[in-house]
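Data card: per-record layout.
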Amino acid sequence: ACFIFALCAIRRQWSDQNTASESAKDISNAMAITSMTALSLLLVPVARHSVILKLFGWNEAAAVQFHMYLGRFVVLAVVLHGGLHMIRWSMQQEKLMQMLFPPWNCLGGEDYDPQCNTPETECSCYHHMRNFTGLIAGLALVIMWSSSLVRRKFYTVFYKIHILAGPIAFICTVLHWNRSVMYLAGGALYYTACSFPELWARSSARLVSIERVPGMQRPYMALTFEASQAALKRYRAGQYVKLRVPSISNVSHPFSVNVKDRKLRIVFRCMGRFTTELASRLSDVAANETTTVPEMHLDGFYGGPDRLQQVLQHDVAVFVAGGIGITPYLSLLQQLGHTA
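The structure for this 340-residue chain is written out next.
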């Protein structure tokens, strides 16, 4: 749909009477409008506990995929938008660095009117600042996209870059083109509205038991939490929660969760800094070396469709998992046993 919108926007802007420079400008602006349209929807799929997802019965895994495709399209459209303007400046024999970075006199608030080589070039202090804020917004979006490529191995880096670069991209986009706020405000307000109740009602999860499970190479930890009846009714096999331990990290980390004896259970392997530090502190608690259990917050549930119903649609189902990858299947296998 975004590609069709982009082609339609280019067709509306296209004219056989345009020069090459004018055509580059028109296509570039068409790509800008296309990126704004995609940006207006970018935050909707990843809003926490989204009402829209529940209304349309859309699972979170598919929503995240939609968010990723939208993000890639936004970055592509923004790069084309900026690249075509740079090509247009080169056609007009303007220096790229002078067009992207405003002169010092423009920053001083003086009544200064910069001059360009070609009279047709937009070259006021306003236009220089517009180019600069567009460059910052574009770089922030590219950095966010780049961090998503290493999300699985460096989740904390990915998360912090999004937290820092996201607002920068938003602010600079609005400064670059003030009418973009009409495109961005809806998604941003919806994301904030969905996240605010969860942040307001956040409470600590009560840890019931800690178990250290021997592993071949790295140790495993099994944590059991109290669960309300309402939470157990909402849980579906294969879903995950986000665990935050403020004394270790303010970043929420995703963990597969299963139900055991009507309690929520997380099993993880010590791999990165967060899980290693968490396991170390909990091991001290289990060994009675300290009685201070770190404060923990659980947020969920997240995940794909109802796996149990998917399995029950088939006469034969084969599960393949190894190591810590077995955790999403524990509750599913238990539920299948009760169903049989």
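Known properties of this structure: The chain has a mean pLDDT of 82. The beta strands are 207-213, 220-225, 240-245, 249-256, 258-260, 263-269, 297-302.

See the next section for split statistics.
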